[in-house]
Amino acid sequence: MTQDAAISVLGAGSYGTALAIALARNGHRTLLWSHRPEQVATLAAERCNKVFLPDAVFPDSLIPEASLERVVKASRDLLLVVPSHVFADVLKQLKPFLRKDSRLAWATKGLDPASGQLLQQVAREILGERIPLAVLSGPTFAKELAMGLPTAISLASTDAKFAKELADLLHCGRSFRVYLNDDMVGLQLGGAVKNVIAIGAGLADGLGFGANARTALITRGLVELQRLGVALGAEQETFMGMAGLGDLVLTCTDNQSRNRRFGLALGQGKSVDTAMAEIGQVVEGYRNAAEVHQLAGRHRVEMPICEQVYQVLYEGKNAKEAALALLSRDRKAE
Ligand SMILES: NC(=O)C1=CN([C@@H]2O[C@H](COP(=O)(O)OP(=O)(O)OC[C@H]3O[C@@H](n4cnc5c(N)ncnc54)[C@H](OP(=O)(O)O)[C@@H]3O)[C@@H](O)[C@H]2O)C=CC1
Ligand SMILES: O=C(CO)COP(=O)(O)O
């Protein structure tokens, strides 16, 4: 039986691995679970996730683990970092192993594909009202975090003690700054909507548009995010922080973003399937575009950029026509 750990990270893709490295680098015994036992054996033998983060060596206190039961029982605090489309599934799998004092955080960015709900609602439906929940969101490319490059993030929780203790585990005065925030809804929406806008920014760049268009998309994308956020009960000022403006700028402007690269490939005329295959990792914005479309419709929120991205992805609209549709909208006050 694996000994107790300070925290267990579930999901050994690029971001789960990077967060586990950051936690272990802070000196905390950290378990890292993958759903594929053969991957766990490779991670343990190579002390590195060569597929996603080949330059980041695991600190000694990072322990790959194949048993879901063991990782859930070994630590009070669980950090889920799986793609949003398997979030609910993994919660159902881990539920039977939860301790009485378990607390759950996630760094997944997205919504529930089946319902378009916030992941917080999914967690509540599956795990009940009692378990403390927390969310991490903000501008954090896995590779830079894993390399110990300076990074800042926001953390919100349903439980102030959990928020503080999780921030204490993650925060590193030399490289990883954790801001506490009390807007769980805002943090979750920021992480989902920025993926869609980043696809839009990639599309614009793929079409050969310039810095003016990209910056207009970021700025008006922020307005769309704020509108949806306020309609769902988030605080408007959250979106001027790490999980709003911060993550929008990061993912819309840097080619480390898979969502941006996906948009770039589509703008250059590649098909959805080819673009996805070339990236070979999760592109959350593809599903998020449909979920945000659903959510905006349900709450009657106008989100023209997200709507055009949706139409390109799901209704076969040509990217140039989508750009024209945005430019030819009625003039209005900012
Ligand atoms: N990468 C980044 O820089 C950042 C990512 N995020 C968010 O983190 C989340 C995870 O993304 P990321 O790590 O980048 O994704 P990756 O594409 O790097 O990896 C996804 C991982 O999830 C695993 N996985 C797939 N299905 C399951 C399942 N049913 N149970 C358990 N694990 C599963 C995959 O395993 P397999 O290969 O076997 O399918 C793979 O290891 C996303 O929501 C993303 O938006 C947030 C901030 C930064
Ligand atoms: O969320 C991210 C950085 O904050 C990662 O963005 P991508 O999923 O677009 O790569």
UniProtKB/TrEMBL annotation:
**Residues annotated for substrate binding in this entry:** K109, R258, N259
Entry protein name: Glycerol-3-phosphate dehydrogenase [NAD(P)+]
For binding NAD(+), which residues are annotated in this chain's numbering? Answer: G11, A12, G13, S14, Y15, G16, A142, R258
Swiss-Prot/TrEMBL keywords: Cytoplasm, Lipid biosynthesis, Lipid metabolism, NAD, NADP, Nucleotide-binding, Oxidoreductase, Phospholipid biosynthesis, Phospholipid metabolism
Role summary: Catalyzes the reduction of the glycolytic intermediate dihydroxyacetone phosphate (DHAP) to sn-glycerol 3-phosphate (G3P), the key precursor for phospholipid synthesis.
Would the keyword Transcription regulation be found if you checked this record's keyword annotation? no
Binding-site positions, NADPH: S14, Y15, H35, R36, K109, A142, R258, V282, E284
Report a single Gene Ontology molecular function.
glycerol-3-phosphate dehydrogenase (NAD+) activity
**Annotated family:** Belongs to the NAD-dependent glycerol-3-phosphate dehydrogenase family.
Q: Where is the Glycerol-3-phosphate dehydrogenase NAD-dependent C-terminal domain?
A: 183-322
Q: What is the lineage of its organism?
A: Bacteria, Pseudomonadati, Pseudomonadota, Gammaproteobacteria, Aeromonadales
